[in-house]
Amino acid sequence: MKLLDNKVAIVTGAARGIGEAIAVKLAEHGAHIAFTYVSDSSADKAAALEQKLVSLGVKAKAYKSNAADFAASETFVNDVLKEFGNIDVCVNNAGISKDNLLLRMSQEQWDDVMNVNLKSVFNMTKQVIRPMMKAKKGSIINMSSIIGIRGNAGQSSYAASKAGIIGFTKSIAHELGSRNIRCNAIAPGFIETDMTHYLQDGDASKTFLEKIPLGRFGQGEEIANTTLFLASDMSSYVTGQVLSVCGGLNI
Ligand code: NAI
């Protein structure tokens, strides 16, 4: 018996990076996976991931859907319910960064980050709680960031969106705990993905590494392991929490 046998999990923004690692990890532990990607340029990667997940022995389907778009999120969740029957786990992973000092930040940059990172969590959570309430169970996992806890120069929009996710997560945990729906957030530190590639070499890398007690950047799989814990009944008494997975960067 695997930890997530016969559960259905949604993962947003899973064509690469942390989302991809999460989709693979949850599938390895028996979950059927419905995942999203947003751009046509990711279609091949999404198709390859779908194949990989199916080869792990679960049902899997890629959906092109913009998590920042309320109507698209509603359509996506309805399509998943038609295809998969129910939704046990929702991982709100999709995210972007458009870093700039506030002096130079445009309104458009601010809005894009808030829409993709924060509004997407509202869009998706609002849709998945209905089937979860009916089933009297569910686990929602929101991808925050250590930057949402401590802030960072040049990342005010990203930090605000990720801090917003924490407030949202705790509120949903309060609202839906009585329905046996858990809602938690993960706050990754620096994880080696395309999003952080510019930090991974040279002086910037050295400066960051000096601040991380474990002395290295994290891997997508390490976030996926935490997601697996929060998705499964191993965390049945955990809700409204922010789990930092950051090599000790926050201490
Ligand atoms: P990434 O850039 O490699 O992956 C993000 C994924 O989200 C991409 O596949 C992208 O296409 C997708 N996406 C973007 N906008 C979308 C939208 N509107 N609808 C659906 N999908 C969309 O980044 P990474 O590193 O894998 O990040 C995943 C999550 O983890 C993000 O929320 C990010 O903010 C968060 N995070 C990452 C950290 C890191 O060090 N890499 C640290 C802390 C948090």
Q: How would you characterize this protein structure?
A:
This protein is of the alpha/beta class. It has a single domain, classed as NAD(P)-binding Rossmann-like Domain (Rossmann fold, 3-Layer(aba) Sandwich). Helix content is 46%, strand content 15%. It is built from eight helices and seven strands; from the N terminus they run E-H-E-H-E-H-E-H-E-H-H-E-H-H-E. It has helices at residues 17-28, 43-55, 70-84, 107-135, 147-150, 156-176, 202-210, 220-231, and strands spanning 8-11, 32-37, 60-64, 89-92, 138-143, 181-188, 242-245. Strands 3-2-1-4-5-6-7 form a seven-stranded parallel β-sheet, sandwiched between helices. Helix 1 (17-28) packs across helix 8 (220-231) and helix 3 (70-84) runs parallel beside helix 4 (107-135). The protein is globular and about 50 Å long. The structure holds 1,4-dihydronicotinamide adenine dinucleotide. 1,4-dihydronicotinamide adenine dinucleotide is lined by residues 12-13, 15-19, 36-38, 42, 66-68, 93-96, 116, 143, 145, 188, 190-191, 193-196.
| CATH A-level architecture | 3-Layer(aba) Sandwich
Find the CATH topology: Rossmann fold
Radius of gyration: 17 Å
User: What would CATH call the class?
Assistant: Alpha Beta
Structural class by secondary-structure content: alpha/beta
Major beta sheet summary: 7 strands, parallel
Assign a percent range to the helix content.
40-55%
Strand count:
7
